[in-house]
From TrEMBL:
Protein name (Swiss-Prot/TrEMBL): AB hydrolase-1 domain-containing protein
Domain AB hydrolase-1: from-to ranges: 62-280
Any one GO cellular component localisation term in the record: lipid droplet
Domain of life where this protein originates: Eukaryota
Predominant localisation class: other
Region (Disordered): 1-27
Entry's Gene Ontology molecular function annotations: lipase activity
Organism: Nannochloropsis gaditana
GO biological process, one term: lipid storage
Classification lineage: Eukaryota, Sar, Stramenopiles, Ochrophyta, Eustigmatophyceae
Locations listed in the record: Lipid droplet
Amino acid sequence: MPQKQQEQRKEHDQHLDHPAADIGEPKSTAEDHSVHIYFFSGNPYVYALYDNLLSLLRIRGHAKGHRISTLLVTYPSLPDFFLADPQAAFAYIAKDVHQQIWAHERARHSPSPTHTILVGHSFGAYIANLLLPHLTPVPIASIYLFPFLSEPSWRGKLQLALADQAYRRTPFLGSALHGVTSRLFDWVLRFISSPFKRQSLGGGIGPETLRAILRVAACERAEIGGKGPDLSHVDMHGERHGSMPYLVYTEGDEWSPRYVWDAWPEERRVDMSHVPHAFPCHEAHDEEVCQTVLQIVGKVVGGHEGKEALTDTRARL
């Protein structure tokens, strides 16, 4: 990912010290629940699709008595040699994100938030889980939105296999095909997105960004998909790290098959089966996911929603 684009994304999403000022809210009081959310996107390098959700979390959070600030972390572009060692590739990403979080905490001018929470979507949930044991202090909770944590279904495997082959073969097919392929990817992304989200995509997905996305997908296939139906690397019960993990899932999700949510503690999972895995493509789903995340935040940190039990969100429709 170009350095300039990384800097723009960080500057855009770092509402570090006074998130309430964005919406004209009064300054915090002693009764406020200060929460900082580190958000890990699911689509590497297409960060603009998450802008609306992060804005909603801050605005709706204030209405519920939580002073919420957010940081959307960015992922470094992987060098080609990491394809030979996907485990090292993910360690490389996690180290870069860790440095972002460390720099963010060092640059903070206001008091530290009362609570820190990690929220990861899809592939971002895997990175958040990978980073969790290295963060000090340990986040009070982690929320995994439709996560890609281990072996996907056959549909997910097929998508990863196609992405892997596309990445490995395009260098031999010339730069002209790179442009055609990136325009096709951009068209598909815009086709599945709402008009509102299409505007946020700006100039579209260029060949360099597409290559970066496919490179990550090739590593995902080997590293995450290669784990099989094994969740031993995920602290589902919060026993190892002391951070309570929550699962938001949807039935039929090729990236979170049934064995994932069947293994998760029932009291810390939420069924959002009316919301698709690619929820960031539609602002209506942003609103629903925001309400679910805030429900979990209320359960974890308290406030006037703190005593509510997590509910099957289909009952709200």
